[in-house]
Amino acid sequence: MSKIVDVLIDFLFPNVCIICGSNANNIKSPVCQTCISKIDYIKMLHCVTCFQPLPDGGAHCWQCKKTKYHFEKVIAVGKYTGVLRDLILKFKERDLLKDALGELLLKTLTINLDASLIDYIVPVPLSRKREFKRGYNQSVLLAEFISNKITKDVIKDNLVRVKDTTPQFELNREERLFNIKNVFSVKEPLTFRDKSIIIIDDIATTCSTLEECSVILKRNGAKKVYGLVLARD
Ligand SMILES: [Zn+2]
Ligand SMILES: [Zn+2]
Q1: 170 CA distance to ligand 2 centroid (A)?
Q2: Number of domains within the chain
Q3: Which domain holds residue 28?
Q4: Are residues 15 and 90 in the same domain?
Q5: Which terminus of the chain has fewer Cβ atoms in its 10 Å neighbourhood, N or C?
Q6: Tell me, what CATH number does 68's domain have?
Q7: Are residues 43 and 23 in the same domain?
Q8: Are residues 216 and 119 in the same domain?
Q9: What is the predicted pLDDT for the residue at 27?
Q10: Are 137 and 153 in the same domain?
Q11: pLDDT confidence of residue 19
């Protein structure tokens, strides 16, 4: 029912910002530029590997100093707080945010990585149950948006989730690492052989999901793996 109401509201008030309710914006976007400008972007002073903000400077966070990840680096738009957090939560219910969030992701990607280094874009797969319930995988929508802009293919059915898991946000760090082990599998290994891949997800907290995907992709011959997420928690 609420979805029908949402669709009706969008139809009647197409320019109302989904976050602040302001209708002052003329752009056909569900979120206004004022709200976009309030995002807590991660710019300078972050870990070069996992993008964790480092207010006191330095190249690596304490976690990356002691961990050898299988990905080259993770890139994130902003901190998981305020407007960005609200947008990500709304994105789980409504797919109309894909262009606005895709645009943020694209900007962050082009600032931090040479897109010509990438061969394929791979969204983190949801469990079938969750994707069916939601009607879409938000990471696939973001991957498709990026794909159109940088003209690299999305490979969405080759990295698959073979185990349903407790949502990571309900767990602590140790539990997350254990929870995500052996969750993914690759169907056709030849596809990824010697390819550089960028994995798309919405949030990275411990990076354990990105790491587990990277382990599997590398095991199946991937040359380099990068992570691109909306928020770093
Ligand atoms: Zn707004
Ligand atoms: Zn780090």
Answers
A1: 22
A2: 2
A3: 1-38
A4: no
A5: N
A6: 3.40.50
A7: no
A8: yes
A9: 57
A10: yes
A11: 92
Which numbered ligand comes closest to the C-alpha of 19?
A: 1
Which of 150, 224, 212 is CA-nearest to residue 186? 212
Q: How far apart are the first and last CA of the chain?
A: 32
From the CA of 73, the nearest ligand is: 2
Full-model pTM: 0.89
How far, in Å, is the centroid of ligand 2 from the Cα of 142?
24
pLDDT band at 92 (very low <50, low <70, confident <90, very high): confident
Q: φ, ψ for residue 115 (rounded to 5)?
A: -60, -20
User: Residue 90: its pLDDT value, please?
Assistant: 92
Cβ 19 vs Cβ 35: under 8 Å: yes
Are 48 and 160 contained in the same domain? yes
When pLDDT is averaged across residues 195-220 and rounded to a whole number, the result is 96
How many angstroms separate the alpha carbon of residue 51 from the centre of ligand 2?
6
Same domain, 48 and 143: yes
**Same domain as 188, residue 107:** yes
Handedness of CA 224, 175, 76, 54 (dihedral sign): negative
pLDDT at position 174: 80
Question: What band does 11 get if pLDDT is binned at 50, 70 and 90?
Answer: low
Report CA(80)–ligand 1 centroid distance (Å). 17
133 alpha carbon to ligand 1 midpoint, in Å?
A: 28
* 64/29 same-domain check: no
The per-residue DSSP string of 94-126 comes to -GGGHHHHHHHHHHHHHHHS-GGG-SEEEEPPP
Average pLDDT, the chain: 90
